[in-house]
Amino acid sequence: MSETLLSSRNLAFELYEVLDAEALTQRERFAEHSRETFDAAIGTARSIAENLFAPHCRKNDENEPQFVDGAAVLIPEVKPAVDAFLEAGFLNASRDFEAGGMQLPTLLSQACFCHFQSANAATTSYPFLTMGAANLIESFGNEEQKQRFLQPMIDGRFFGTMALTEPHAGSSLSDLRTRAEPAGDGTYRIKGNKIFISGGDHPLSENIVHMVLAKLPDAPPGVKGISLFIVPKFLVNDDGSLGKRNDVILAGLFHKMGWRGTTSTALNFGDNGECVGYLVGKPHAGLSYMFQMMNEARIGVGMGAVMLGYAGYLYSLEYARQRPQGRLPDGKDPTTAQVAIIEHADVRRMLLTQKAYVEGSFDLGLYAARLFDDTQTLATEEERKSALELLDLLTPIVKSWPSDYCLKANELAIQILGGHGYTREYPVEQYYRDNRLNPIHEGTYGIQSLDLLGRKVSMNGGAALKQLVKLVQDCCQRAEAHESLTALREPLEHLLSRLSTVTLSLLGDLMKGKVNDTLANSALYLKVFGHMVIGWRWLEQAIRAEEGLAKGDAQDHDFYTGKLQAARYFLTWEVPSMHHDLAILEAKDDTCLAMQDAWF
Amino acid sequence: MSETLLSSRNLAFELYEVLDAEALTQRERFAEHSRETFDAAIGTARSIAENLFAPHCRKNDENEPQFVDGAAVLIPEVKPAVDAFLEAGFLNASRDFEAGGMQLPTLLSQACFCHFQSANAATTSYPFLTMGAANLIESFGNEEQKQRFLQPMIDGRFFGTMALTEPHAGSSLSDLRTRAEPAGDGTYRIKGNKIFISGGDHPLSENIVHMVLAKLPDAPPGVKGISLFIVPKFLVNDDGSLGKRNDVILAGLFHKMGWRGTTSTALNFGDNGECVGYLVGKPHAGLSYMFQMMNEARIGVGMGAVMLGYAGYLYSLEYARQRPQGRLPDGKDPTTAQVAIIEHADVRRMLLTQKAYVEGSFDLGLYAARLFDDTQTLATEEERKSALELLDLLTPIVKSWPSDYCLKANELAIQILGGHGYTREYPVEQYYRDNRLNPIHEGTYGIQSLDLLGRKVSMNGGAALKQLVKLVQDCCQRAEAHESLTALREPLEHLLSRLSTVTLSLLGDLMKGKVNDTLANSALYLKVFGHMVIGWRWLEQAIRAEEGLAKGDAQDHDFYTGKLQAARYFLTWEVPSMHHDLAILEAKDDTCLAMQDAWF
């Protein structure tokens, strides 16, 4: 049977040949783990994803949540799937053994999780959001909050949300209007409206814990005046039982073009003045708490984009192998049999392009997950800090590059299926619709690009950028051992060198205060930077493929050769195409910035 | 009120400043027309499109046709809209006065038609398909067929379809299996199954005339054995009244990701052995007939892609002007008011990119329509033949480039609206879904690229290519009169020169019989060729804008300046990015071709 979620051979390649997951078992935190426990967890994830998540992916899309009597109603298949996910422990895959977790490295919890993302993006969102909310309380909540709200989340009885966006404040969080008034008893009364709150209502759990950004009466203006509150759907009594319904009203559901199985809600907090909230951590520090959790969330979003791309790639690959149509250009004799469309050069191009985008960003996503483990478990604080800097730098890429290019991969999957691909009788059009969300939520592409160029590349004197450049150079150096990789290595070296020059020049301009001009083309910068990073990850994979080939396992020959071909595609077809964008960046071209409203 | 279908200033610019529509009134066929009659027709089209087509565009999408008792049921708004279209004469806009038409130039009928395409792609499909079917009968049918089938189509009583695709034969028409047996009485009995037949059933007309490709018993194999048949839903008596139901069964409806208001049908012909068909023209010549009608149909499809892009561009432009969000990078003071998002450089980039793609391909589509007029009304046969050659060459670009880039425009429109753009509460996501069909139907992108490189550029000794090169060179020469255009002209000259060299090299390889290798990267070739063509059309627009500016009409200053800025964007940001693709083509790079099935 062909694999539909992801290639398990490719996952094993990533974990054990590229990212050396086994080395993590040398660290104290993961000492009880082994390749066997890793593979067992992956096997369980695959099985649940295939058997309980994938089968209702289309049904989720065709039967979006309904707003009935003030509540959201889902199709019945969602709860058993999520329950199985919980029972198997994936909600707490990375959490301590003592806290009921599996204490897996994030690399492995992500490797498990991506099976669910591929099988059913919408259903997977409910536990994903809960994990994010739980992590926030774990990191910044007090003991009572952990007892009252976190523990039931860990137990799978309460789910969670992230409630940031308001009707007039999406990307611009500094303009939030939701208010929190002290009630005199240590709690707060929340008042405001939030929109696009995913998982904001559903019947999957006893309670829903909203992590709400709001402003205290004495809040300074802007992002430094945002505080974080726990606002449960139902109040929780001291003994842990559910109390009365909190003043949080489901005002309505949004109807999306894709990702339809996940409720996207409008929530009114405090319409009756009785919405109880609990301050998390210190006043006015809410946004910094959110951002400290962002790396993990954004890896998750990026991985979600990858996995939708992956699902489409595998489906279109299988289709191309099965579907006879036409003949090669030099063999038009209509009395001969039609060939499978995978024989057509342009179909191969569309498959190879998908492979390059999907497997390149899959590698990057897992690399980032492993880096997250480094931030937690490397031996010294200095090493951990250094890992965190690199992860901070890479996060906008991990989130945004797959959101853009794996959406393109989905577009190609539809094209391979032709007219069939355009119908809802086949799954690829849904992947495309689902994936269109990813460049928007958790920080748009534009916001990520400002974060990268305006903040990340220069932070701490460019320390993270220097780290990255060294890693890429080191990779190129190792590639020199393989003469066959020269044609792949050189374009990367060339791009890295020019990108470094252009970056210095741009940072110089930023230092001179030319902020608007310099950041104007930041989206191009993100694209080029992303190509450099994915190019690096492909060269790394190519080195591992050469090493694998050298071992001479005949069974893996095709796999490694395919890796080398995809690396060749990305490094020789895609990477060099960035030089024109670099020229625009280098020239500080103001074509877009200078365009005026009245001229449109 | 802001315009939502297209910019009428831009349409006037195209018609009267770029394409000199008034000059057509010097030709005998159009002598009774004038700018006034042209503008009156456009005004009528705009009014009907705004008042009867646009209002049910979303409803069409949300209530796709239902299969009820063997027939397709549409929402009630479709018929009044189509009726108004018919009553205003747009079905026969280009047809002779004597035949009940308006005898408008195709340039003008297309300029009218595009309003409907922008307002409601799905509803517009019904008359569009009818026009194509009617043109086929008009060109190749006999007098009796014209009397019996064409006249009621002209009268708006019968509608039409194009029935080509079969379950196992989409792009590869040579593998059609539908059969036509002579019945002995001059008619034929048709047997076979067709899929993806748009407009294959609906309640909008008394009868539906299917133009069906099928094979006669003595058909030679392949495309040279395909014949064209008229197969009506209801037989037509000698007196023109409807006879009994023909043996054409609606087997089912396809459910598409977009363009949902148009029925996409599976039709069974002759399940009961009683499907009557009428041979059009000569046996085995059916595909050539189809292809002779292709230019007009493909201009229509390309224009459809443009107009979905146009609608999304205008909507996102208006949204960007209204939506306050955030502040400029150098003015983060949260106590100041938020700016409209059109002030953000990256939003301007996304708007300017849309403008460049949409208005560039809008110009090309109208240019092609005018060229079609030249093929019909230029003075000498030689001139007409020459115009037809150029149109043949440009057709794959006219069809495919907008299908690709105006889809990207729609993607950007969603991005500008952010989370709102992803919901079905706003129209841009529907445009994106609707437009995804265009790179697939009427010949996929890949098929068009093979047509361009494998056939069109070399036909008649490259005569059409030489014509095109001369036109572009001439445009560049005229641009030299404007020093301000130097930076725009040079990238086009550079691209044209290199594309010419690469083309010669590729054609040389084709001559040597290296067919598979040379055509392997044809999709890249189409992209580069398309950029050259659109770059040319932008330079042409830039020249006209400079001329307009020189006239000094203050009211138009912003309009012309915007044209120049969009031209600058396309010619300096987009055109030079093609050189890497040219390098791949020049190197006859076999990365994709060499990829093997087993390596994926």
Automatic annotation (TrEMBL), chains A, B:
Any Pfam family: Acyl-CoA_dh_1
Cofactor(s) this protein requires: FAD
Enzymatic reactions: 3-(methylsulfanyl)propanoyl-CoA + oxidized [electron-transfer flavoprotein] + H(+) = 3-(methylsulfanyl)acryloyl-CoA + reduced [electron-transfer flavoprotein]
Keywords per UniProt: FAD, Flavoprotein, Oxidoreductase
Domain Acetyl-CoA dehydrogenase-like C-terminal: from-to ranges: 469-596
EC number in record: 1.3.99.41
Annotated Acyl-CoA dehydrogenase/oxidase C-terminal domain residues: 285-450
Domain Acyl-CoA oxidase/dehydrogenase middle: 162-269
GO terms, molecular function: flavin adenine dinucleotide binding; oxidoreductase activity, acting on the CH-CH group of donors
Domain Acyl-CoA dehydrogenase/oxidase N-terminal, residue spans: 43-156
Broadest EC class assigned to this enzyme: oxidoreductase
Highest taxon of the lineage: Bacteria
InterPro entries linked: Acyl-CoA_dh-like_C_dom, Acyl-CoA_Oxase/DH_mid-dom, Acyl-CoA_Oxase/DH_mid-dom_sf, AcylCo_DH-like_C, AcylCo_DH/oxidase_C, AcylCoA_DH/ox_N, AcylCoA_DH/ox_N_sf, AcylCoA_DH/oxidase_NM_dom_sf
Sequence similarity: Belongs to the acyl-CoA dehydrogenase family.
Purpose: Involved in the assimilation of dimethylsulphoniopropionate (DMSP), an important compound in the fixation of carbon in marine phytoplankton, by mediating the conversion of 3-(methylthio)propanoyl-CoA (MMPA-CoA) to 3-(methylthio)acryloyl-CoA (MTA-CoA).
Protein name: 3-methylmercaptopropionyl-CoA dehydrogenase
Organism per entry: Pseudomonas turukhanskensis
Organism ancestry: Bacteria, Pseudomonadati, Pseudomonadota, Gammaproteobacteria, Pseudomonadales
